[in-house]
Amino acid sequence: MIDAQDYAEFSRFLADCCGLVLGENRQYLVSSRLSRLLDEFAFAKVEDLLRALRRSADPTLKSRVIDAMTTNETSWFRDNYPFEILRQTVLPELLAKPRPIRIWSAACSSGQEPYSIAMVIAEWEATHPTKANVNILATDLSESVLAQARSGLYDGLSIVRGLSPERRQRFFETVNNGHRIKSEIQQRVRFQKLNLMDSYAALGKFEIVFCRNVLIYFSADTKRRIFDGIARQMDSGGYLFVGASEAVGSYTDAFEILRTPQGSMLRRR
Ligand SMILES: C[S@@+](CC[C@H](N)C(=O)[O-])C[C@H]1O[C@@H](n2cnc3c(N)ncnc32)[C@H](O)[C@@H]1O
């Protein structure tokens, strides 16, 4: 069991390096999430891991701890309505103007979110005479989910979560060890490691941002800082999608809610 002092130190470490707030009495969660890592690095207890984190400048251990503690849950077309709004409202408006569109999937996990966006764009192109001038940047803090996203390879269990048989048929090929996303979709997405606690200024401006199901684990102050940072990367009229249970109103006034027949999204004021 982790004592109160170690738990407090570990909580501070996570909040500082990736924004994650553990809250009170989650010692059990920490122990269970770290148990494999402790075995692998031959640490007898969390206290030894903390000592190593304090001592070592080696980024590998830190990154492995973050990987173990973050939640990577995702699925294809998660919640469906953001992708319908994209298809029915946002793309027709933005693609009517002859200029490139940049989309950022912040906290993309193993790639299902940005690849779902890419599929919507491919479907739009199939019914229009011109190619859409769209770039998708997908970022995450975790090296391991980024590696899976880049590989474009999914097992039988993850392929069915949210993906219709038609889309599976059209956008994937079956390979020995699972299903590989076709290069037509894969090449539309660029993956990059990025910690949302750092600056995004170097990323440039985006017309559309998806930042979904990640800030729920962060403190109010951190959410405020991150939403303001995202707002700075968008011009007036840009669109932001957050998770179905997330709201930005108490953290920033940079966005207004826009209701569509498919559901709500946010628009940069
Ligand atoms: C629950 S998944 C959400 C994935 C996707 N956006 C969705 O809605 O399905 C949360 C992701 O946020 C990432 N994450 C956690 N803290 C982060 C941080 N500080 N910076 C960037 N990504 C972070 C995790 O690695 C994980 O892949």
How does this model look, in words?
The structure is a single chain. This protein is an alpha/beta fold and 269 residues long. The protein folds into two domains: 66 residues, Chemotaxis Receptor Methyltransferase Cher, domain 1 (Orthogonal Bundle); 188 residues, 3-Layer(aba) Sandwich (Rossmann fold), CATH 3.40.50. Helix content is 44%, strand content 20%. It is built from eleven helices and ten strands. The strands form two sheets. The chain has a seven-stranded mixed beta sheet. Strands 3-5-4 form a three-stranded antiparallel beta sheet. Helix 2 crosses helix 4 and helix 5 packs across helix 6. The longest helix is centred in the N-terminal third of the chain and has 15 residues. The protein is globular. The site of S-adenosylmethionine has 21 residues, from loops.
The total number of structural domains is: 2
Structure summary, number of beta strands: 10
Shape: globular
| Percentage of β-strand residues | 15-25%
CATH class of the largest domain: Alpha Beta
Q: Quote the average pLDDT.
A: 95
Q: What structural class do you assign from the helix and strand content?
A: alpha/beta
Our measurement of the CA-to-CA distance between the termini, rounded to an integer number of angstroms, reads 49 Å
CATH topology call of the largest domain: Rossmann fold
Compounds present? Answer: S-adenosylmethionine
Q: What's the CATH architecture of the largest domain?
A: 3-Layer(aba) Sandwich
Count helical runs: 11
Topology order in helix (H) and strand (E) letters: HHHHHEHEHEHHEEHEEHEEE
Q: Report Rg.
A: 20 Å
| Strand arrangement in the largest pleated sheet | 6-2-1-7-8-10-9
Poorly predicted segments: none
Under CATH, the homologous superfamily of the largest domain reads Vaccinia Virus protein VP39
Determine the fraction of residues in helical runs and give it as a percent range. 40-55%
Sheet having the most strands: 7 strands, mixed
